[in-house]
């Protein structure tokens, strides 16, 4: 495990699972959660605002505020899911690429999985935690393990460059930057770590194929706002027409807004769960990671029913 901190300063807190999550997100709750996700998607496709749709869905299925948070993070329209899937890259696709990592998004989700805290698999197949970072971040027991796991996976994948982005306004972002730089040095990874006032538009901009006016990227919008799918088709076509001599740029994130505005992307937690493609691979050097997803993963990717959901 990578740990460059003084023993007296090592984190003691954990990214722990909430006591009630076994009931709220356990097997018995999955039918209601999947049905609620079906209904939320149905409403969003028909022009309902996210707040109005969540109120209807929550009332119909009797969901708690935390369950609604999970349903919201899992939801996207079928068009969004198809567009995101067309641009998704696996670990093998990182070789020779310029990789940009949405730091807090990737790190907190992986910390949550390692701590067996609840993680949601959404309709687009991406994994999202329920912890989040709201103005402050504290390293936890799982931080060093999470960084070490990512470092090993990326060493095996071989991207040309790795750039972490962190939110400058989040407390302890500077300390985390120093931790990441030290971790990379110990692993022999020359990754860089950048602090930005708002990394989301930065990641969307660097990850897009083709240049155009960036004025629409200045404000981070809700993940269920209507998306111009013509733009998504242009983005996909641009990626396909990219000059083979130019290294691809890939964004590692599960943030829904970024996914709808960037080009190629990778869900690093999802890739770690796949394990090495070679069954004989050395798990100490490759991306294999045993995190017991049965203990923490709430899978809302599948629809509750095969038929189209009815309006609440």
Describe what is shown at a glance.
The chain is α/β, with parallel strands linked by helices. The chain is 40% helix and 11% strand. The longest helix is centred in the N-terminal third of the chain and has 16 residues, at 30-45.
Question: What distance lies between the first and last C-alpha atoms, to the nearest angstrom?
Answer: 49 Å
Beta-strand content bin? 5-15%
SSE order, one letter for each helix or strand: HHHHHEHEEHEHEHHEHEHE
Overall mean confidence score, pLDDT? 82
Strand element count: 8
Given the structure, what is the number of helices? Answer: 12
Oligomer: single chain
Sheet with the most strands, sense and barrel status: 5 strands, parallel
Structural class: alpha/beta
| Rg | 19 Å
Please give the order of strands in the largest beta sheet.
5-4-1-6-7
- Which spans have pLDDT < 50 for at least 5 consecutive residues? 1-9, 210-232, 278-288, 306-312
Q: Residue share in helices? A: 25-40%
């Amino acid at each position: 495990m990578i740990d460059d901190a003084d023993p007296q300063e090592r984190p003691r807190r954990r990214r722990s699972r909430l006591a009630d999550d076994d009931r709220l997100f356990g097997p018995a709750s999955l039918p209601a959660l999947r049905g609620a996700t079906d209904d939320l998607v149905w409403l969003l496709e028909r022009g309902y605002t996210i707040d109005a749709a969540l109120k209807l869905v929550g009332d119909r299925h009797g969901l708690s505020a935390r369950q609604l948070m999970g349903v919201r993070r899992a939801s996207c329209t079928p068009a969004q899911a198809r567009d995101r899937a067309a641009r998704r890259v696996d670990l093998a696709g990182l070789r020779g690429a310029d990789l940009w990592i949405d730091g807090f998004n990737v790190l907190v989700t992986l910390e949550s999985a390692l701590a067996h805290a609840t993680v949601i698999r959404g309709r687009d197949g991406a994994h999202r935690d329920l912890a989040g970072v709201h103005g402050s971040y504290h390293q936890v027991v799982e931080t060093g393990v999470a960084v070490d796991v990512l470092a090993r996976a990326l060493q095996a994948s071989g991207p040309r460059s790795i750039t972490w982005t962190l939110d400058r306004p989040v407390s302890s972002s500077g300390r985390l930057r120093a931790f990441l730089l030290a971790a990379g040095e110990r692993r022999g990874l020359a990754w860089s770590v950048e602090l930005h006032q708002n990394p989301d538009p930065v990641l969307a901009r660097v990850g897009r194929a083709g240049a155009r006016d960036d004025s629409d990227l200045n404000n981070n919008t809700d993940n269920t706002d209507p998306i111009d799918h013509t733009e998504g088709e242009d983005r996909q076509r641009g990626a396909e027409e990219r000059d083979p001599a130019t290294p691809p740029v890939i964004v590692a994130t599960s943030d829904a807004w970024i996914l709808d505005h960037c080009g190629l992307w990778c869900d690093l937690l999802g890739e770690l769960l796949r394990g090495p493609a070679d069954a004989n691979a050395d798990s100490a050097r490759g991306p294999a990671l045993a995190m017991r997803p049965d203990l923490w993963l709430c899978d809302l990717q599948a629809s509750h029913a095969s038929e189209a959901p009815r309006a609440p």
